[in-house]
Design goal:
mainly alpha
Length: about 170
């Protein structure tokens, strides 16, 4: 599929990593903070982002049911969460690179089988993570913590070391 789609998934993995980096050093009280209109606490939302990403990978790879959800498992710490985010982020990049136009996958949810377009799962994976990262950023902001830059401009500066000729050459 398109290198542009692959780049979106590279950005997604990078943005998740930035958010996990920002989580380091936060007290339990700050990690357990939430605000009205968000998914839950910072900690729960990060676990949810990674768990969902792992489920998208399983569905796209047609690996069958994921089994025990990370969200229902005891939280073992940032290292495990970071490993899960990296592995599933890299897998999504690979799966996006291999995705064929018109491809479908068979997924299962609560014992019910579904045939889904690959493009739907790819769109949902990006949208879901972006939405929840924004919610974590809102919680951090309400605690007077500057959230990390996770936007496309910051990604470009990180990836191309500020070489704007890469951006404006198109």
């Amino acid at each position: 599929m398109s290198e542009n789609l692959v780049e979106l998934f590279r950005h997604n993995a990078w943005a998740n990593e930035r958010l996990l980096d920002a989580r380091e050093g936060l007290s339990d009280a700050r990690l357990d903070a939430t605000v009205v209109g968000t998914f839950g606490s910072v900690r729960d939302t990060l676990i949810h982002i990674v768990g969902a990403q792992e489920r998208y990978v399983a569905a796209l790879a047609e690996a069958g049911p994921v089994g025990v959800s990370r969200e229902r498992s005891p939280f073992l710490g940032l290292a495990e969460l970071r490993d899960g985010a990296r592995a599933s982020g890299e897998a999504l990049v690979e799966l996006a690179a291999r995705a064929r136009s018109g491809a479908t996958v068979t997924a299962e949810r609560r014992g019910q089988g579904y045939t889904l377009p690959v493009r739907l799962l790819l769109v949902q994976a990006i949208n879901h993570a972006t939405e929840h990262r924004a919610r974590v950023a809102a919680i951090l902001t309400q605690q007077d913590i500057d959230p990390p830059g996770m936007d496309g401009w910051t990604y470009h500066e990180d990836r191309f070391a500020g070489d704007w000729s890469q951006l404006w050459s198109w």
